[in-house]
């Protein structure tokens, strides 16, 4: 029996899942506060007879384990957190939720601006499909819902909390870890790629120091705003003048905070810096250049003390295993046909997904099991084609935009199929 036939026989009616998606979209939770999503996922898994559900792993993380005879073990992962973004999509099911962030105590509008609600819904429908088709496959299936992906803390927290520890949460050791992400690509399409698939990301909060005083007497002060401005401008040369043009790197100063009023020169300024790189060599060079520039500009401004560096997050590289990726890609080619791209461009963003594989114990007594991560499209196919032909792709909302909202179908159906096809590629 082919995988496509199994899906045809076992895939549930997706109408209830479309309603579930809307409910999840209207009830987003910030990183570390994904209570509604976690409770919903646990409820759905518990309704599937045979699933062992284990909750509160590294926060709101959870797993569902379905043992179905001898065979390989496959782990499917979905992330569940939302973002501090005010939704502007105008959809009838748009989020109007506000939430106080436990990290800083501030209240924010909250939105699933990265599509994690689509990930959750696809995963639950995929779990239902695989549960209904147990006669057609053998092995162990692990469904994992991970919190706090946006701040690069969820996968680490689940590992640290004993995800694979036989005396704690006892997640079966997977032979392959699989995951996906909805992207601003044509809905109905899926994309795989061997090797580098997502960049590393390093974020820092850097505080530089001056000497405060009255705005009418700048000669009696050391202005940290001017110092920060020089740093920001100088950092723009790191990628353009210090990175090989054949490499990819991004340096972004996403925030600068200094002072409270216009007639006072502050005593310090804080910059929030985000760095994306795709190779270890470039990562090392870019981070070194940033620290050199900050230090030099502080000296040039006669700053009274050394800058303060505070790492805020760090995402690893996502480098897809060749054998696992080729196995998934071959199965996708049979099921999706020309809607599958085996040379999909690498993602611009970053992921902590790989930690669930690289930190898993393996059969050799060490760490690390193979993994692959793919994308699937969420943009109305006609809208995407028109934008491509007219050269207006910049009008397509991207992940983290207040306007990002995947079209429900065929996005949901594709997300479900991709998870099921990938899992069955190892379990049949």
TrEMBL record:
Keyword Thylakoid annotated: no
UniProtKB keywords: Manganese, Metal-binding
GO MF, any single term: hydrolase activity
Residues annotated to bind Mn(2+): 114, 116, 150, 181
CDD domains: M20_Acy1-like (cd05664)
One Pfam family matching this protein: M20_dimer
Cofactor: Mn(2+)
Cofactor: binding comment: The Mn(2+) ion enhances activity.
Domain Peptidase M20 dimerisation: 203-299
Domain of life: Eukaryota
Similarity comment: family membership: Belongs to the peptidase M20A family.
Record-given protein name: Zn-dependent exopeptidase
Protein's organism: Glarea lozoyensis (strain ATCC 20868 / MF5171)
């Amino acid at each position: 029996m082919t995988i496509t036939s199994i899906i045809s026989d076992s895939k549930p009616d997706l109408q209830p899942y479309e309603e579930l998606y809307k409910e999840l979209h209207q009830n987003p939770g910030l990183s570390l506060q994904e209570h509604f999503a976690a409770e919903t996922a646990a409820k759905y898994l518990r309704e599937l007879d045979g699933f062992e559900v284990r909750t509160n792993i590294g926060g709101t993380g959870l797993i569902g384990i379905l043992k179905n005879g001898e065979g390989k073990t496959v782990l499917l992962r979905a992330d569940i957190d939302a973002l501090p973004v005010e939704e502007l999509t105008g959809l009838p099911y748009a989020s109007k939720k506000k939430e106080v962030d436990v990290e800083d105590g501030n209240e924010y509008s909250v939105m699933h601006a990265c599509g994690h609600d689509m990930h959750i819904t696809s995963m639950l429908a995929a779990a239902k499909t695989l549960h209904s088709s147990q006669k057609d496959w053998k092995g162990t299936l692990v469904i994992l819902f991970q919190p706090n992906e946006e701040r690069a803390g969820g996968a680490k927290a689940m590992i640290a909390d004993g995800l694979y520890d036989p005396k704690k949460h006892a997640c079966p050791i997977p032979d392959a870890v699989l995951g996906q992400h909805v992207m601003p690509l044509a809905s109905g399409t899926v994309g795989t790629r061997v090797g580098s698939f997502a960049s590393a990301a390093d974020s820092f909060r850097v505080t530089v120091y001056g000497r405060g005083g009255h705005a009418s007497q700048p000669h009696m002060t050391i202005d940290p705003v001017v110092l920060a401005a020089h740093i920001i401008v100088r950092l723009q040369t790191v990628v353009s003048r210090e990175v090989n043009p054949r490499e990819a790197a991004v340096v972004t100063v996403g925030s600068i905070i200094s002072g409270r009023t216009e007639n006072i020169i502050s005593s310090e300024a804080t910059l929030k810096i985000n760095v994306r790189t795709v190779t270890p060599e470039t990562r090392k060079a870019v981070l070194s250049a940033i620290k050199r520039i900050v230090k030099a500009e502080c000296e040039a401004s006669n700053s009274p003390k050394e800058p303060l560096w505070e790492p805020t997050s760090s995402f690893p590289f996502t480098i897809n295993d060749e054998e696992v990726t080729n196995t998934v890609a071959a199965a996708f080619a049979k099921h999706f046909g020309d809607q599958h791209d085996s040379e999909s461009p690498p993602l611009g963003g970053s992921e902590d997904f790989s930690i669930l594989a690289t930190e898993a114990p393996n059969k050799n007594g060490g760490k690390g099991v193979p993994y692959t991560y793919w994308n699937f499209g969420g943009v109305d196919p006609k809208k995407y084609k028109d934008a491509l032909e007219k050269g207006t792709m910049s009008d397509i909302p991207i992940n983290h935009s207040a306007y990002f909202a995947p079209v429900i179908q065929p996005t949901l159906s594709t997300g479900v199929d991709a998870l099921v096809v990938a899992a069955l590629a190892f379990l049949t």
